[in-house]
Design a protein that fits this description.
Mean pLDDT: 87
Structural class: mainly alpha
Shape: rod-shaped
Largest sheet: none
Strand content: under 5%
Helix content: over 70%
Low-confidence stretches: none
Order of helices and strands: H
Radius of gyration: 31 Å
Distance between the termini: 107 Å
Number of helices: 1
Number of strands: 0
Length: 72
């Protein structure tokens, strides 16, 4: 009967090891995806910033003079 206890204990250790391996795999997969997502977000922020800078320059050089010009 002691053999069943040893086998049961070994199976529990193996099961815990598999669960740990799966958890670590899922964590590392999430970290890798997060890195790609952060890179994508950084590119989007750069594009948005560039677009807003261009709009600001357009407003300053084209639109603002129209509204500040004295018409009287």
């Amino acid at each position: 009967m002691a053999e069943f206890g040893i086998a049961s204990g070994a199976l529990q250790v193996a099961d815990a090891g598999l669960k740990l391996a799966k958890t670590l795999y899922n964590y590392l997969d999430a970290v890798r995806k997060a890195d790609r997502e952060l890179s994508s977000l950084a590119r989007e922020v750069t594009v948005t910033s560039t677009t807003l800078s261009s709009l600001a320059m357009y407003y300053k050089t084209t639109m603002l003079p129209l509204y500040t010009r004295k018409t009287w």
